[in-house]
Amino acid sequence: MDNIRNFSIIAHIDHGKSTLADRIIQECGAVSDRELTKQMMDTMDIEQERGITIKAQSVRLDYVKDGKHYILNLIDTPGHVDFSYEVSKSLASSDGALLIVDAAQGVEAQTIANVYMAMENNLTLIPVINKIDLPAAEPERVAEEIETTIGIDATDAVMISAKTGVGIRELIDAIVDRIPAPVGDPSATTKAIIYDSWFDSYQGAMALVRVFDGEIKTGQMVKLMHNNENHQVLELLYPHPLRRQKTQSIKSGEIGIVILGVKEVGSIRVGDTITDARNPAKEPVGEYAPAKPFVFAGIYPIDTDEFESVRDALDKLKLNDSSLSYEPETSIALGFGFRVGFLGMLHMEVVKERLEREFNLDLIATAPSVVYKVYKTDGTMVEVQNPSELPEPQNIERIEEPYVRATVIVPTDYLGNVITLLTAKRGMQEKMEYLNETRVMLIYVMPMNEIVVDFYDKLKSTSKGYASFDYDPIEFRQGDLVKLDVRVAGDVVDALSVIVPRSSAESRGRALVTNMKEIVPRQLFEVAIQASIGNRVIARETVKSMGKNVTAKCYGGDISRKRKLLDKQKEGKKRMKAIGKVQLPQEAFMSVLKMD
Ligand code: GDP
Ligand code: MG
């Protein structure tokens, strides 16, 4: 066991985790130069396209230092706030972490959030300053920033360029020298944590585990501690981006993939403990706490017949994303669908895109909403995840909404802009600290609802992309809130309702109908779009009728052009949902989030 090193790579997004992972894999000779593609660990199409890591991936590597053979288990982690649940499970399986900081950017909001999580797991941290090849790199200043903001010694930070390969060998040597070997009792009964799982269409559910005590053997009967289910181990593999290698056992201190032949997708949960079925461990590895969703949205099939397919897809996706939660709901406007819980906005986008791509579904997502605690006059409390389900005003005593503590790091040049934005978003300043002459860290307390409503884009545009942001949910607080309804051609469209502060209801309502007017395509008849609170209409716009047929303008001759236009219309129609007589595109359901 003393030759094993289990480590994660943590960093703010874009600081170079995935690139570094590739470089380490290459340096250890696990893939040939010919096989090396960019970002080996980002295996999903959507990760490659967006250049972000969504699922943590692991790889087992061999390394020789001073004539001694080592096994390095590398766990690439997602950097975005929404995926911190994945990060925390990866960290629980590691003994150390490489803390990557971009030499030109310095410490950012998620650098700090990730460090706190690593410290909670008692990990040995190796500060790594990346991108020293950049002309704008200031490694010494960044080392100082790491010391002042995080309070860890950065004098022995490893300076690297994951791009050119400078410092990589020194870094791997530092991993061997500084990260402790795993501890555990090889002779005790089996005890392993599941830190990732996914569904393979040939082999069924796969679980990525870290074994703490004992070992897992092929053929062994094991128990899943959270639901007491027993299963036989069919196959064991060591993780590798190209070639998984079969093994007969995964021993104390090691990581590996366990195939249990489980077809029931709900059985395997990230964070659960696997033990021996006949001689079970007394306690699980740490507490099993499922991730808590903060943002909810309706997901509906465009074709109502696809409801069961959506359920099946969600079941399968949940295996790959334990933070996903959902239950069936019905909407007058959209029919049968699901109310799905997400960890944040990016998580929602990613889930919708994966459902559409990996399961071939055409979906409509409603605008996301936070959870409200509604205390009613009859003394009961209901949690409202869907704005259209807000009780009637006369039955409400008070409404509480979730608040977050937000950390923003911003260059002084944009400090004024960012403070203006935070204030407009009902933020209250708790702390303002200069990290050095050019950068400031702000701590604000603000309603989570304001983050859901186009906060992230606004923060980026008001700071030219330089501000970084992270948040932690803290508590529920009372708010003066009302439900804003949207009527299309006279009827309230339940899927478009939003809950807003009373003070901004008017301006939101006006912005909303103006937006909708741009998005709702012309129909054969005039369509009124109204925003209302209860029965009171506060804003109105009209979408004029279509008039002439659109193809009329390509004079007879050009058939191919005419066909193209008709095809385009058909393509557009696929994405439309009929609300009464009116066809609404997906953007209409998101327009409630746009404030201007
Ligand atoms: P991650 O989000 O932390 O996984 O970051 P990535 O590995 O995806 O890298 C983000 C961007 O930084 C990519 O465009 C990389 O090519 C680039 N990058 C990573 N390491 C270096 C480096 O050492 N030098 C330079 N110049 N660019 C780098
Ligand atoms: Mg990455």
Automatic annotation (TrEMBL):
Membrane topology reported for the UniProt record: Peripheral membrane protein
Record-annotated Tr-type G domain positions: 2-183
EC annotation from Swiss-Prot or TrEMBL: 3.6.5.n1
Compartmental location: Cell membrane
Taxonomy, superkingdom: Bacteria
CC per GO annotation: plasma membrane
Gene Ontology biological process terms from the UniProt entry: positive regulation of translation
GO terms for MF: GTP binding; GTPase activity; ribosome binding; translation elongation factor activity
UniProt cross-references to InterPro entries, sorted A to Z: EF-4, EFG_III/V, EFG_V-like, EFTu-like_2, G_TR_CS, LepA_C_sf, LepA_CTD, LepA_IV
Gene3D superfamilies reported for this sequence: 3.30.70.240, Elongation factor 4, C-terminal domain, Elongation Factor G (Translational Gtpase), domain 3, P-loop containing nucleotide triphosphate hydrolases, Translation factors
Catalytically driven reaction(s): GTP + H2O = GDP + phosphate + H(+)
Family: Belongs to the TRAFAC class translation factor GTPase superfamily. Classic translation factor GTPase family. LepA subfamily. Belongs to the GTP-binding elongation factor family. LepA subfamily.
HAMAP family, per database record: LepA
Functional note: Required for accurate and efficient protein synthesis under certain stress conditions. May act as a fidelity factor of the translation reaction, by catalyzing a one-codon backward translocation of tRNAs on improperly translocated ribosomes. Back-translocation proceeds from a post-translocation (POST) complex to a pre-translocation (PRE) complex, thus giving elongation factor G a second chance to translocate the tRNAs correctly. Binds to ribosomes in a GTP-dependent manner.
Protein name: Elongation factor 4
Gene field: lepA
